Amino acid sequence: MTQLAAFKKMKELMTLYYIEAKTSTAKPVAWLTSGAPVEFVHAMDVIPVYPENYAAMCAASHQSVALMEAAEAAGFSQDICAYARTDFGQDLLRGGPAGGLPPPRFLVCSTNICKTVIKWYEAVARKHNAPLFLVDTPFLHDGLSRELVDYTVAQFHDLERFLSDQLKRPFDRDRLLEVIRMSQDATGLWRKILDLAKTMPAPLTSLDAFIHVAPIVTLRGTRPCVDYYQLLYEEVAERAARNIGAIPVERYRVLWDNLPIWFKMRYFEKLFEERKCALVTATYANSWGGITATQDVQTSDSIEALAVSYLNIYINFGFEERIRYLARLIDEFALTGFIMHSNRSCKPYSVGMYCLREEVSKLTGKPGVIIEADQNDPRVFSDTQVETRLDAFLESMTPLP
Amino acid sequence: MFAAFHESISDPFATVQKHHDRLGRPVIGVVPAYFPLELIHAAGGYPVQLWGAGGSIEHADACLQSYCCSVSRSLLELEMRGVTGMVAAYAFTSLCDTLVNLREVYRRRFDKPTVEFSIPASQGREARKAYLSTVIESVLKGLEAVTGRAVSGEAMRSSAALYGRIRFLQREIYRVRRQKPGVAKNGDFYAVLKAGFFLPPEDYEPLLDRLVAELEALPPRKGRRPRLVLSGMVFEPVGAFAVFDDVQADVVDDDFANGWRSAAKGALQVDDLAAGITDYVYNGAPCCCIYHPESDRHAYLVEKAKAADADGVLFWSIRFCEPDAFDRPQLSERLKQEGIPAVTLEMDLATGNFEPIKTRVEAFCEMIGGLEV
């Protein structure tokens, strides 16, 4: 990965975060999905823990297979999401780089990333006998509407009551507004950092973004998260100003669609660098880029704005909007093509991908390739198949002048 | 007794075409699951339930990966091959991630209109009701655009009564089967339910009415065979159900989404449609696809197995159905804790060789015993 000085700070932040989550007796722990409105949880001084982030860490450190096998031995089918299987496995074996996650006092999940999380969190809730709060964010087949925002805001108010009941103290609305501001500051910085990759050569790649996304997933809504992204922004902006590219030679600039393949990060780094191909934007990393402009609903209310941001997530969009968004990225980042990861573990991202590729290529004139893999399960990954497809894709692209 | 049912499903789309030609109502293909058919009927449409099909997948492979369930892949295959040419529009439900995206695939690939019954998952009653009201309004508008007919209060009441009666009669045949196991062969029983997916309700209801009376009149069979409860999303491939007859096992009840979970729904209350549809979705039998913590599937399935005096539960699992697969390990464990043996059979809709299924069922029946002569 690109040698960034901020990396050390991020490692320190993440280590401290996991130590606190594992050892704190003063604060309760809640398990959250990556798209859950964590601001409410922070406002009540609860430590949010993210099984998705931990599952990714398990895969990146090549520990996911043993954990998934434990889940499979307990009856969970290989057909279900590999994040969930990794999570069930870490819970059974107390495994992974942090020796397992601390048990949840309660759970909060949101359907903006998938409906699978309902089933996953139901299973966890049953096992730990922990209450589950669900924030339902319906799929935006036809864009955002006032009704959808109202529905989400109403659930936020229910969430405030849930937290108050669980913690036996009144919900702290003032604190929530502070947390939302910090969350917006961090997501704003994150978006600015990702936008720096529009510079040619790109000062950081999407593979770097996949690493540096950890704090925005786990710590958004906190001061250290804002400070960290300020630091990272300054460093990346400096690289952009000095024309320092993340890879030595940039002949191709491409987009990555879908989750990373966590257990193959180094492999892809080498593969793309050798082929002079920079991954410069990724729909997954962009998902934490905060509130995107929407013509459908304009609001100055902080809670409504938060509802808009949690509804308005790429994989919660209808295809019309996804195609428009991908075409916009291809244009703004001056891309030569796009890669779509057909991810066995993520249906909302992957089902319909073949149609999307065809339409985006037609609209933009840029070639796209689909590689079949999985975010967390190395057992369904074939180096040969992926390399063959990527090489054919590279040949189909027109290199940068 | 069962000939009319078998006949209607032997070539389901010929059946649909025949009735479409006769009735002249626009055919609306209903994708799984729980879309209130009453709404379509009241709007002047001819609802046809599409729970997938057997046969090879050739065209749909260009759109959907092999890790999508065979229900979604076979539905797309039917449309791509033109088998469902008479379908004028599709009615989707936000049941799972695959079907939500499948609607988007249909919207990009085909010119046919689609409507979606977006099922709210929030447990906040006020939030849910307000959102559901907007969903119903959008569904009714979408249906009106297809049929050209606005839903009147009278039409709604009449359609709700008709479908309510059908589900009541289906529950009656389930009751008779529980009381007199083996009164219908397993293959015949599921042919009866499947016929209801394709026949117009006005034609299906009298057939069911007559069947209930005929089954009631039959004497119970002597002797006891292994008694099973089946649980899963779809009772397909329906041809496979003959294996239970071959091994002399009685399916005494089921927990299929297109079986009991649908039949268990009472008549739709239409005076307050949002309240009626909330009741329709959430009450009755729990489903792995409907988040409703007040209705625990574990206690429900244990109770169902005990009430049917079942010797075991067989999970009839269609591969790559995540909602079903997620629930299964804990459900199996709970059943075992209650002394109810459970086993899982995995398949897809294209499964044509039923011998492996037969072998597994036979082995399970031997394990659970249950034979009293």
Describe what this molecule looks like in 3D.
Helices cover 53% and strands 10% of the residues of chain A. By secondary structure, chain A is of the alpha/beta class. In chain A, helix 4 crosses helix 5, helix 7 crosses helix 14 and helix 15 crosses helix 17. The longest helix of chain A is centred in the middle third of the chain and has 23 residues. The model of chain A has no long low-confidence stretch (mean pLDDT 95). By secondary structure, chain B is α/β, with parallel strands linked by helices. Chain B is 51% helix and 12% strand. In chain B, the strands form 2 sheets. In chain B, strands 2-1-3-4 form a 4-stranded parallel sheet, sandwiched between helices. In chain B, helix 7 runs parallel beside helix 9. Chain B is globular and about 55 Å long. Chains A and B meet through helix 6, strand 4, helix 7, helix 16 and helix 17 of A and helix 5, helix 6 and helix 14 of B.
